[in-house]
Predict the 3D structure of the following.
Amino acid sequence: MRVFMTGASGWIGSAVVPHLLEAGHEVTGLARSDASASALETAGVTPLLGGLDDLDVLRTGAGSADAVIHLGFKHDFDHFDESGRTERAALEAFREVLRGSGRKFLFASGLAGFPSGRPLTEHDQSSFVGPDSPRGGSERFAMDFVDDGIAPVSLRFSPTVHGAGDHGFTSVLVRIARERGVAGYIGDGSTRWAAVHRLDAARMVGLALEKAPGGTITHAVAEEGIPSKQIAEAIGRGLGLPAVSISPEDAPAHFGWLGAFFGADVHATSALTRELLGWQPTEIGLLQDIAENYVSGAEAPAA
Ligand SMILES: NC(=O)c1ccc[n+]([C@@H]2O[C@H](COP(=O)([O-])OP(=O)(O)OC[C@H]3O[C@@H](n4cnc5c(N)ncnc54)[C@H](OP(=O)(O)O)[C@@H]3O)[C@@H](O)[C@H]2O)c1
């Protein structure tokens, strides 16, 4: 298949690419800079120059592909509304060009925006509805593409897709702990994060391309929910810092934009995804990864 990807140069996307190439697919990837284009070429991907706001480029890429994997996202959490608008407009452009084709459209999503109190399953619907909601209400919008003769597949990634070289949420927690001199958790630390290793997540995306029928929601979840206190303790152990409770009132000042995410209880299963795709996570879990790859060789925090 000819696959068009956005985000092929990113954390998850760059791990997905080898699976696609090994399976014999030809991959074209959106590249917003010369550096990204050259990284894609080195990885065996044909770059298509443009950004997520260049809707004509997105239409060109999708129009000449047999399937689309959309992992690109503007991770500017200080301007999250704008990221959502870009996401929504990109999805509208993809819908326009894929309409009636029956082609697969795999897109990144997350596990925020659901009622808590029990583990989320692939049957739970996002409560983010409408263009002004977080991520532009992208999941609910894209899942309706089945009515347009497109085969959408949602890839709900755990809030931490961890691994060596991560620059996402877990690495930001480690940076904040170094800066503050304490490894914080919010309140009693009972809120949880589901977690998946980057390499397991990438393998799941490759399997979803091959096996998931249109209209499927998948969960890239290896560990259902690790209490935030345990995450903070693992960071603290590695950095030689105390793990301490931060009150919910102080969380925004302590954690900045990450506070809203770290305080969210994200507890999810992937039983249906494992059964459908025959996917089994095999990589190390988050707490071991923190010890081996996030805090090893840590320097003492500045006094
Ligand atoms: N990582 C996680 O823990 C996690 C958890 C839940 C959901 N997700 C979602 O999964 C998807 C992939 O995440 P990731 O961790 O791989 O993200 P990432 O490492 O930040 O990569 C983002 C990708 O989007 C591209 N991109 C950003 N802004 C762009 C723009 N204006 N124009 C064109 N391309 C642009 C980046 O290109 P450059 O290489 O040029 O920067 C990169 O390829 C995202 O939708 C993310 O929100 C991730």
